[in-house]
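User: I would dearly like some help making sense of a protein record. I have put the entry right below:
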Amino acid sequence: MISQSAQPDPIDSLLEKISKEVWEEEKDHLATFLQRAIARIVDTAIVFAAAYGSQLLFVQFVKSDNAFNVDSLVRSVEQATPAFALMIWVLVYSPMLESTGGTLGKRLVRIQLVDLETRETPLFRMCMARSWIYLVFVVLAFVPALHSCLAFFVSDYRQTWHDKLTNMVCVKSS
């Protein structure tokens, strides 16, 4: 019978120490919640400004054309503007900018999305998938979207659900 020594294996101890150091170093490169929140606020303001700017232009056009049922058209456009803003975000703004280095908000706070395994800018299709997953959370209700954002605090790589499902991580830009 082989007896087990009471002392831990020095190689295991060394590997554990190296793993902890790597984790701490990698953790320093991950984006903070505050950075991500500021980026989301800036991006939301940009997209809603574009949507409401489009609404104002359309309303001005309808009123100047003396169209039939102007009030009804204006009311319909005003009701549809938030959905229009969300579609701009999901179809155009987020996927196009994330796949080219980050949205304007992320660039402002110097963070960007990268693929978790390759640490490179994600492909357009993955950015589109991430946007659609976030859309599903937002459309389902406030609760799934909130839980997705709160997953940041319990995830290994500070990922939200839509990040985790598309294998992305948000890091500080160099």
Remarks:
- The chain has one domain: 30-172.
